[in-house]
Amino acid sequence: MSASAFSPQPLPAWRRAVLKVGSSLLAGEGGLDPQYAIGLARFIDAAHVRGREVVLVSSGAVAAGRGRVGAAGDGLVLRQALASLGQASLIAFWQQLTTQPVAQVLLTHDDLRNRRRYLNARATLRELLRLGTLPVINENDAVAVDELKLGDNDNLAAAVASLVDADLLLIATDIGGLYSAHPLRDPSARPVERVEHITPELLEAAGGGAGVLGTGGMRTKLEAAAKAGAAGIATVLFCGRDAHVVEALADDRLHGTLVLAQGDRLRARKQWLRHAPASGRLQVDEGAALALRRQGASLLPGGVVAVEGDFRRGDVVEIAIAGQAPFARGLAQYSAGEVRRIARRHSQDIEVILGFRYGESVVHRDDLVLLGSTANTEATT
């Protein structure tokens, strides 16, 4: 059934998106085939011209590696070896298709569940986007083992969307989107253009095996959409093989399935920050407090006057003026000992003092929530 069966609908407003492209759109005889990737690369470039940011989660390393050595079989160790062989080819493949500099980022589940590694990965991706590059992300198959593997790149894409605070998750498929039944087996199957909630019944109906080259069918895509939706991120499923569908995306028109977000992305994150246990406290001066409360600013080291507790990078800390109740909470970008060394100093001095630099802020504004009456100003900052 053609993707044209899906009526056009507007894409949700977005500034930063994660685009997932699977092996079924990239693998050909003897390695990687640019037939469908060209259109997706043009979409990425068009988004960049409009001031938008795209993070690409791309499969294809195993197919690229297999094309180099012609190895048969599908065991885990062999796939790990083929992924190692194919990673360089995969990055070169995308670099040839896009005008942006391409950066490779390999992740494992352990990187995303460990708070410090999580912050390190997010800081790196944020800097790569600031530099105008296209981050290309894949699972670190060469070192991941069964209990650490994220399982598939659909779910990896959902995790990355949350990691980079994306507004939208785009999943390119080899069919038009979600249908009421399997479109190749049931002639009565009808396109499902909008999904309010992903239910267990819907997941069960979407179950089934993947193609020979792919690692996940529609069920894993809906699982990923559910995870993204829980983080306040909408998901769209579209046919990456249909040039007209991909071209329409650049004009914010979707011919496919839109899975709505469940709640507000920032509100969900800030709600967690309000209730997570704090490991320490930062005392700040009046100027820093005013900037945080009224201007939506990050907490810079120059505004910190004292440090309480022995927290690590990535821990939740309270923020207060000396002698007063905390008015904010956030994730510390530096450990307690490091903050003590850079307190009252300019952000430009961080690397000179510490010998390294995670960023200019002690608590970034994206990782900060105001408390009490001050929380009312967050909507306007």
Descriptive tags:
alpha/beta, 13 helices, amino-acid biosynthesis, Carbamate kinase, disordered C terminus, Archaeosine Trna-guanine Transglycosylase, Chain: A, domain 4, 381 residues
CATH-level-2 architecture of the largest domain: 3-Layer(aba) Sandwich
CATH topology of the largest domain: Carbamate kinase
How many strands appear in the DSSP assignment? Answer: 19
| Mean pLDDT over the residues | 87
Residue fraction in strands: 15-25%
What's the Cα radius of gyration?
A: 22 Å
CATH class of the largest domain reads Alpha Beta
- Give the helix level as a range of percent: 25-40%
| Poorly predicted segments | 146-150, 209-216, 376-381
Q: How many individual helices? A: 13
| Structural class computed from helices and strand pairing | alpha/beta
Q: What does it look like?
A:
With 381 residues, the protein is α/β, with parallel strands linked by helices. The chain folds into 2 domains: 3-263, Carbamate kinase; 268-380, Archaeosine Trna-guanine Transglycosylase, Chain: A, domain 4 (Roll), CATH 2.30.130. It is 36% helix and 20% strand. The chain contains 13 helices and 19 strands. The protein has helices spanning 37-49, 61-69, 76-97, 109-113, 115-130, 153-163, 200-205, 218-230, 243-250, 265-275, 286-295, 336-342, 350-354, and strands at residues 9-10, 16-21, 27-28, 31-32, 53-58, 102-107, 134-139, 168-173, 178-179, 191-192, 194-195, 234-239, 253-254, 256-259, 280-284, 304-309, 316-321, 328-331, 368-370. An 8-stranded mixed β-sheet has the order 6-7-5-2-8-12-14-11, sandwiched between helices. It has a 5-stranded mixed β-sheet with strand order 16-15-17-18-19, sandwiched between helices. Strands 1-13 form a two-stranded antiparallel sheet. A hairpin with a 2-residue loop joins strand 3 (27-28) and strand 4 (31-32). Helix 1 runs parallel beside helix 9 (243-250), helix 2 crosses helix 3 and helix 6 (153-163) packs parallel to helix 8. The radius of gyration is 22 Å and the shape is globular. It starts with 8 loop residues before the first strand and ends in an 11-residue tail after the last strand. Residues 280-363 form the PUA domain. Its EC number is 2.7.2.11.
